[in-house]
Specification:
This protein is 78% helix and 3% strand. The protein is an all-alpha fold. The chain has two domains: 123 residues, no CATH class; 137 residues, no CATH class. The chain has a two-stranded antiparallel sheet with strand order 1-2. The longest helix is centred in the middle third of the chain and has 29 residues. The protein is globular, with a radius of gyration of 20 Å.
Length: 289
């Protein structure tokens, strides 16, 4: 087997495993909970590794503790333990944050500032900024996705994943075939306006198709709301991809990591999902309430 064929085989195999895990997480909380922690903690490790300095190395354990605390707060808030025990009222009965979870979230944020209060760092603003970026760019979307959105609207999460994955694929295919005008040449030279616009049309068409599938009709969205959801996925997913590409370019690395064979790091796989989760979640929940 020549190197090109082998790389394609490895990339395809790991891609299938990744998709299978994400789909399993939508329907199986025993997969969703560890997957959220895995993506969160590995994603932070990759981010800190890209910009590693002695000071960031000292802050890293505190950021990890803050991340685990935030994930745990949303886990409690979503009654995931009851969900794991198949409590009948969990689906569609997500409570607002209670005092205990609010305290945990406050402690998670304070944990980012703690190393700067006990150590004499030369770049406290950079260190705090990296910590807050880790929480609000990586951990918060994952918390909302796995511990709030999945128990309440699993069919919408599955549709969200399908739209994200197909939007990325369509942008690559159409960009390769018709791309002439660079979208962001200084950040991601491979992306083109033609690929983006064709992907928008393709993703909107896919959303129309999902609207007519009985399982996804349970979400309660009308046709125009499915189309708006697809456009939000396209726009914010692209922004997430470009932002992560910017971080990698500034760090001088090609991939955020090597943990997923043939695909790079965790951030390389979930960058679009991280940035698109909150706006799409807010739109869909506002439509469903």
């Amino acid at each position: 087997m020549n190197p090109k064929t082998r790389n394609l085989f490895v990339r395809t195999a790991s891609g299938i495993v990744y998709v299978a895990l994400m789909v399993a997480a939508v329907f199986t909380p025993w997969v969703a909970v560890p997957l959220a922690y895995f993506f969160g903690l590995v994603g932070i490790w990759e981010l800190y590794k890209m910009y590693e300095t002695p000071e960031l190395k000292e802050c890293y354990p505190f950021v990890n503790i803050s991340a685990m605390t935030m994930l745990l707060a949303f886990l409690f808030a979503s009654q995931m333990y009851a969900f794991l025990n198949s409590a009948p009222d969990v689906m569609g009965n997500i409570h607002f944050l209670r005092p205990g979870e609010c305290v945990m979230l406050v402690l998670a944020i304070l944990g980012i500032f703690l190393p700067e209060l006990i150590c004499r760092h030369e770049n406290p603003v950079l260190n705090i900024g990296m910590g807050l970026l880790s929480l609000f760019w990586i951990i918060l979307p994952l918390s909302l996705l796995f511990f709030v959105w999945i128990p309440k609207q699993p069919m919408l999460v599955l549709a969200f994943f399908i739209l994200i994955w197909m939007a990325d694929t369509a942008a690559y295919v159409f960009g390769s075939l018709f791309g002439k005008h660079k979208l962001a040449p200084n950040i991601s030279p491979g992306k083109t306006w033609e690929g983006f616009l064709c992907s928008c049309v393709f993703t909107a068409g896919l959303a129309v198709g999902l609207f007519y599938i009985p399982y996804f009709q349970q979400a309660g969205l009308c046709l125009w709301q499915w189309i708006v959801m697809a456009i939000l996925v396209e726009i914010f997913g692209l922004m997430g991809d470009l932002i992560e590409s910017l971080f990698k370019r500034k760090a001088g690395v090609k991939d955020s990591g090597k943990i997923i064979p043939g695909h790079g790091g965790v951030l390389d796989r979930v960058d679009s999902i991280l940035f698109a989760t909150i706006p799409v979640l807010l739109f869909c929940l506002s439509c469903c309430d």
